[in-house]
Design a protein that fits this description.
Blueprint: H1 9-15, E1 27-31, E2 34-37, E3 42-45, H2 48-51, H3 60-70, H4 83-95, E4 100-104, H5 107-126, E5 132-136, H6 145-150, H7 154-157, E6 167-170, H8 175-181, E7 186-191, E8 194-195, E9 201-202, H9 205-217, E10 221-225, E11 249-252, E12 263-267, H10 269-272, H11 288-301, H12 304-328, E13 331-337, E14 340-345, H13 353-363, E15 365-366, E16 368-369, E17 374-377, H14 385-403
Parallel strand pairs: 3-15, 5-6, 5-7, 7-10, 10-11
Antiparallel strand pairs: 1-2, 2-3, 4-12, 8-9, 11-12, 13-14, 14-17, 16-17
Helix pairs in contact: 3-11, 4-11, 12-14, 13-14
EC number: 2.6.1.11
Binding site for N(2)-acetyl-L-ornithine: 143, 282
Binding site for pyridoxal 5'-phosphate: 107-108, 140, 225-228, 283
Length: 405
Amino acid sequence: MTDQHPVSRETFDEVMAPNYAPAAMIPVRGEGSRVWDQDGREYIDLAGGIAVNCLGHCHPVLTEALQQQGNQLWHLSNVYTNEPALKLAQQLVDATFAEKVFFANSGAEANEAALKLARRFALENFGEDKDQIISFKDGFHGRTFFTVTVGGQTAYSDGFGPKPGAIEHGVFNDLSSLQALISDRTCAVMVEPLQGEGGVIPATAEFINGVRALCNKHNALLIFDEVQTGVGRTGDLYAYMGTDVVPDILTTAKSLGGGFPIAAMLTTTKIASSLKVGTHGSTYGGNPLACAVASAVLSEVNNETTLSGVAQREQWFRDALEAINQKHHVFAEVRGQGLLLGAVLSEQYQGRARDFLVAAVAEGVMMLVAGANVIRFAPALNIEKADIDEAFARIERAVAAVVNG
């Protein structure tokens, strides 16, 4: 290639599977909430790698943790344990309801582990007829065949042959729909406390309390998928802490590693006892590099300064979106919690979320969508006020460009 860059966006089309359609520019460097592409052009990151880069790009505490561990120990088989994994597990147990931890590499893997555990626990304690799993329409739980089937978007699960069975879907925030499905045959109910991919929709208190009560009544495990809501995203360390409900199993990934792939499934000693030696595993799960970084992330996020700063930043975002809306009337509402926010497009702009996304990139802002009608924001929890102000000055220009055709 004679291009000044050894690889380009064209390279993607030549060598990568076609399941993504990435932007024309390629980011090469990041610092805090700013990112630069191959041409040195600067962007403000309000996407956070889909709620992953919770402390921004190249946070000094995280890069130091990675470098330090990188000079000590990279990987072991699960025939051995390691210090970073034990330290991180202890931090998670100390900070949550959990007594036991299982490490994996992604949210899908953590959810896969949670679902397998729920089935195994039911089998051992109640017999083989208790196998039904209930989740909710428009929910998202990962891309493995089990988790994508439990997820409530058939567009992601159709077309791959016969699906895993005994999986039903209720309607999110509609308790009667769960009541109609749940019985003593139900082994688990899996729910996001705030639906992310489904449009950034928080569970109502009535709904989530009712789900817990129904699970108790039918001896079903309540699984909270906190892959996107966890590690400070909502202003609590985990979203369940802002409710009256404690789940039986919780999954966490995304922000847990601050950009390094890691996930965890958290549960009680009683439930975890069903994962006997050999019943489940992960080659990379509990990797020392990942655990060292995640340990540093937890230390940085799980404190009053970071967590209380989330609510302040949420207000800045809401104010900025309101100011744009006063001028252009493109949003019907802004929903979500903390720094997982969804700006829902008004009637006139239905189906055009991607147009706003593309216009924002052209102005130097990275955003997300959650379906065709919602613009999603999931920035770093420590994003600076100056970055927010500049980002929304650019977004205003992007919105104006779409509005004016």
